[in-house]
Amino acid sequence: MSTQSLLQVDVSALVQEWNQIKAHLAEQSKAFAEFCKPYRERQDAIENAIHKFLNETNQQNARTKHGTAYKSVSTTPKIEDRNAYLDFCLNSWDEGGNEMLQLGAPQIDAFKKYMEMREKQLEEMKQRGALPNDLSVTPPGTSVSFFEKVNIRKS
User: Is-contact 125 131, C-beta < 8 A?
Assistant: First the structure.
């Protein structure tokens, strides 16, 4: 048996073992979730009963020797019209628009597409002998890092 086929046999066995462990963990997680289900349902019922009590007695909280139950309101904003929201933030920059305009990481496919386009632009400029001062392939104000890992999936 050659070294290459021996390596493939070892990798094959490791992939098989990885898939078995993944299936076992999924099965155990499902069993644990089922075990916890009546406890979580009881917690939900308790929360509902306390919520009803607080509302009926017009209270925000109830202190006991075992702890305090209290009501809180969660606010979750959602952007319905991206362009209208961006216009508002930019036009109201000093009145809070800058604080409301939270940026996260760029959408990865758009980011990769930009980098590929920029690489082509730079290559064309190089061929014409007219390279710009900025040779970066990422959009201004951004950087990119790469992390390589091994993934395994069941075939």
Answer: yes
Q: Using an 8 Å Cβ cutoff, are 118 and 137 in contact? A: yes
In contact, 69 and 62? CB cutoff 8 Å: yes
Using CB atoms within 10 Å of the CB of residue 50, give its burial: 0 to 12 exposed, 13 to 18 middle, 19+ buried.
middle
Indicate if 27 and 52 belong to the same structural domain: yes
Give the per-residue pLDDT at 2.
Answer: 57
pLDDT tens for 141-152 read: 888 998 888 787
* pLDDT at residue 7 is higher than 60: no
pLDDT digit string (tens) for 68-112? 999 999 888 888 988 999 999 999 999 888 898 887 888 899 999
The answer to whether residues 19 and 154 touch, using CB atoms and an 8 Å cutoff, is yes
149 lies in some domain: no
Residue span of the structural domain in which 25 resides:
1-66
Dist. CA 33–CA 92, nearest whole Å = 48
Q: Which two tokens stand for residue 148?
A: 């390589």
- Tell me the residue length of the chain: 155
